[in-house]
Design goal:
CATH topology: Carbonic Anhydrase II
Membrane topology: Lipid-anchor; GPI-anchor
Largest sheet: 13 strands, mixed
Pfam families: Carb_anhydrase
Bound molecules: 2-acetamido-2-deoxy-beta-D-glucopyranose, zinc ion
Subunit structure: Interacts with SLC4A4.
Cofactor: Zn(2+)
CATH architecture: Roll
Subcellular location: Cell membrane
Number of helices: 5
Length: 308
C-alpha cells in the first residue's frame, strides 16, 4: 500500500506532536513508515550486548548438572483469568498464586503474566531459534523473583521467563481451546475478556516432559529490554493444530481501525556475544531407557561369539 506523501507527513508530525514515538515491530513500521520505533531504534537497554532472543546452537550448549527439574506450584489451579490485547500481544494475567522454584534458580519466583509471539508463517513465529530454525510460535510465562529486602533493586535474575516453542501438530490441542476462543473477544487493542476457569498446566506439555531445557542470561524482548532475565527454553514443544496457530494472526489486530493483523510480533535475533548457553542434558545424550535397549543386543552378540 502506498500512501500519498502529504498523508505520511501529517502522520509523522502528529506522532511527534504527541511527544510519543511508540515502539513497534518491523511489520508495523513497514506498513506505516515513520509512525513508530522499529526494533533497531528501540531505546532503554535494547542496544546493549546481553539481549534476547538468541539462536540456540544445541551442540554448543554446556551441560550443567545444577539444572534440575522445576517445582511448579499453583500451575494446576483452575482460575478465571483475564486475557487482553495490549497492542503487541495477547496477555493473560496470572497473579496471584502461581510459583516456580528449583530449575537451577536461586530463589522462588511468582508468575505475573503469560503472552505469546507468532507469525502467519509457521517457521517465523518464535523469538528464539534452535540451530537457526524458528518455529510457529513462542509462549512466555513471566515470573518475578520473591525479593529479599537487602537485595540491589535490579539484580540480573530479577525476572525468570519460561519459554515454550510451539510447533504445528496434527491434533487439536484442547488445553488451548479457551484461549483461542477468547481471541474473538479481544480483536482490538485494549480489549479484554474473562475466560472460563483454566489452569496454566492446561497450556503446557506434560510435566514429566519439562525436565530438559536450555538456560542463559538475557533480557526482556520488548522495550525497555532490561538485562535482568534468566531464560529457560524448554526442549519439549507445545503442539497446536494449524488452525489454532493461525487464529492468532487472523483474529487479532495491532490497531483500532483493524488495518493491520497482529502477526510477526517477533523481535529479531540478538548476538550471543560472550555468553554461554547451558543445558540440563548434553545434546544428543542417550535417554537412560535407551541404553539397555542398545547394550542388550551387543552383549548377547558378544556372549554368543564367545560360546560358539
Ligand atoms: C477491561 O476493559 C474494561 C472496559 O471495557 C475496563 O474497564 C477494564 O479496566 C479492563 N480490564 C483490564 C484488566 O484491562
Ligand atoms: Zn515475550
Amino acid at each position: 500500500m502506498r500512501l500519498p506523501l502529504a498523508v505520511l507527513a501529517v502522520a509523522v508530525v502528529t506522532s511527534r506532536a504527541n511527544g510519543e514515538s511508540h515502539w513497534c515491530y518491523d511489520i508495523q513500521a513497514n506498513s506505516n513508515p515513520g509512525s513508530c520505533q522499529r526494533p533497531d531504534q528501540w531505546g532503554g537497554e535494547c542496544q546493549k550486548s546481553h539481549q534476547s532472543p538468541i539462536d540456540i546452537v544445541t551442540h554448543k550448549a554446556r551441560l550443567d548438572h545444577n539444572l534440575k527439574p522445576f517445582s511448579f506450584s499453583g500451575y494446576d489451579k483452575k482460575e478465571k483469568r483475564t486475557v487482553k490485547n495490549n497492542g503487541h500481544t495477547v496477555m493473560v494475567s496470572l497473579e496471584p498464586d502461581a510459583r516456580i522454584s528449583g530449575g537451577g534458580l536461586a530463589a522462588q519466583y511468582r508468575a505475573t503474566q503469560l503472552h505469546l509471539h507468532w507469525s502467519e508463517s509457521l517457521n517465523k513465529g518464535s523469538e528464539h531459534s534452535l540451530n537457526g530454525q524458528r518455529l510457529a510460535m513462542e509462549m512466555h510465562i513471566v515470573h518475578e523473583k520473591d525479593t529479599a529486602k537487602e537485595e540491589a533493586p535490579n539484580p540480573k535474575d530479577k525476572i525468570a521467563v519460561l519459554a515454550f516453542l510451539v510447533k504445528e501438530g496434527n491434533e487439536f490441542n484442547e488445553g488451548f481451546r479457551l484461549l483461542v476462543e477468547a481471541l474473538d473477544h479481544i480483536s482490538k487493542p485494549e480489549m479484554n475478556f474473562t475466560m472460563e476457569a483454566s489452569s496454566i498446566m492446561d497450556l503446557l506439555p506434560k510435566e514429566n516432559k519439562l525436565r530438559h531445557y536450555f538456560r542463559y542470561q538475557g533480557s526482556l524482548t520488548t522495550p525497555t529490554c532490561d538485562e535482568t532475565v534468566v531464560w529457560t527454553v524448554f526442549k519439549e514443544h507445545i503442539q497446536l493444530r494449524r488452525d489454532q496457530i493461525l487464529a492468532f494472526s487472523q483474529k487479532l489486530y495491532y490497531d483500532q481501525e483493524k488495518k493491520l493483523h497482529m502477526t510477526d510480533n517477533v523481535r529479531p535475533l540478538q548476538p550471543l556475544g560472550d555468553r554461554l548457553v547451558s543445558t540440563s542434558r548434553a545434546a544428543g545424550q542417550l535417554l537412560p531407557t535407551a541404553l539397555p535397549a542398545l547394550l542388550l543386543p551387543t552383549l548377547t552378540c558378544l556372549v554368543a561369539s564367545v560360546l560358539s
